[in-house]
Amino acid sequence: MKTKDLSALDTPGGFDVCIIGSGPAGTFLGTTLARRGIRTLILESGEGLASWLTNKRLKSLAEYEYTGNTHYPLNRTTSRLLGGNSNFWTGRCERLHPSDFQPHPYTPADNSWPIDYSDLDSYYDAAEKMLRVRGGPRTRFAPPRRQALPLPGSPDVSFLKELCAKFGVEVEDSATATPTKTLRLFNVQKEILPEFINGKFGTVITGATVTRLVAGNDKEIAGAEVKTLDGRSGTVRSRIFVVSCGGFESPRLLLSSASEAFPNGIGNAHDMVGRGFNEHPNVGFYASIPHSWQTLMPTNKIVRTHQFYQTYRSEGLGALIPAFRQAWLLPNHILPFRLANVPRNMLSVMSRLVRAAFYVGAAAEMKISLANRITLSKTRVDVFGRPIAHLIFNFSDEDLALLDRARSLIGGWLVQIGATGVREAEVAWSRHHQGACRMGADPRTSVVDKNLLVHESPNLYVCGSEVFSTGGAMQPSLSIAALALRLADHLTMRLKSEGG
Predict the structure, then answer these.
(1) Where residue 309 sits, what CATH number does that domain have?
(2) Which of 174, 216, 459, 475 has CA atoms 20 to 30 A from the CA of 127?
């Protein structure tokens, strides 16, 4: 898979669309546009995984500051490499619920979603096909679907279904992107981006960091300034620009591009860029549970339930999505062996001696707060002299109350199934960077409109989970892909109407 360097900026005829970032949003958007004969450039600050792991200067570009009471981690949250954070993605592909798009306790009164579930339904279908999503039958609590998932579920989760049924919970095999090769996780760099790179209308330049968007007095983006770690620089010219560099970097780039036309940063006339950042905190418990000889096999299976998604919204709180994971561990680290050769009475004895490692956790929605935001550091700059991002991130009272509801819910289940050795883990984070460039109908309370066009610029778009109006409790990857495919249709129609 051959990417290019800055010399490709001189491509005859130029570009129709320049996408900044090669993560799921940029890759889905770029690949779809290139299929339609639209000359598309994707700029990626990083390169391959090896470079990300070994190049200290490259890793420094992902650094940011943090203040707040959430104890948000300063590492293992952002990256700089081809394919973006999909390189560390487990492949979970869940839809947002229809209720997420409707007013609920965490919907800001002045900034509701400007689209609803029906606007994304067909794009969810298309994204699931591109991601080769597999999964078992959906429960009555899951988001509605017009058709079955592209691939059937593969793990046998019958034990978890039977176990959870004991305390009245309906679970399902998590919808998951399926790689074309079984010995790897799904990431867009290997599964989707090759089509873009090998096609006639797609160009990827790696090692190219966009340091600034250049705007004219008419507020149209005239170019993007690009720099490399070895000292080269260039300017990208394109008819349309799309910022898809993640929940930290997208607002940072807009804020760093202040000019006479945009004195407070692009799209920031009303001080909304960076505001409303949210994530998915997870509470979790590890325990041991008894099991029968029929399930005495080393395994690792995960199911989730949508049953409690709206339970706590009646209390003025957010959505919740519990997950259950079984991982059998044999005593004294015995290696797997052929159980068919073991007498049944011996298996019965072993099952009384062995207990299964069991995890129950829940991802929680966070309340949108304008005080939770991405801004620019006042004291630190990166290797290109730009202020690094500064995250201000605190729990609200409602966030803490919802996490406590999750703890009580899970604790009751563990008691009912006779779990022992229960241990609560530290609150974990999902690396879902949402909401810092939210969409909305009102430019005073949002950054982009329903088509992801920045309110203040006629040719600049933002695409990714940073545009989510509210965060829900679901994994955002499928919704990111659906929004990218929807944007591809919009840009295709726009370029066609403009004679592109």
Answers:
(1) 3.50.50.60
(2) 459
pLDDT value of residue 4: 83
The alpha carbons of the chain give a radius of gyration, in whole angstroms, of 24
Q: Answer for the pair 426, 102: CB distance below 8 angstroms, yes or no.
A: no
Nearest to 61 by CA among 70, 69, 52, 73: 52
Domain of 237? 6-497
Q: How many angstroms separate the CA atoms of 208 and 81, rounded?
A: 11
456-468: b (≥16 Cβ within 10 Å) or e? bbebbbbbbbbbb
Summarised one tens digit per residue, pLDDT across range 27-46 is: 999 999 999 999 999 999 99
Contact predicate 215/261, CB 8 Å: yes
Distance CA 366, CA 282 (A): 11
Question: Would you say residue 1 lies in a domain?
Answer: no
- How far is 162 from 306, CA to CA, in rounded Å? 16
Q: Give domain status of residue 119, yes or no.
A: yes
Q: Which residue has the tokens 């399926």?
A: 178
Q: How many Å apart are CA 446 and CA 406, to the nearest integer?
A: 31
Amino acid at position 359, single letter? Y
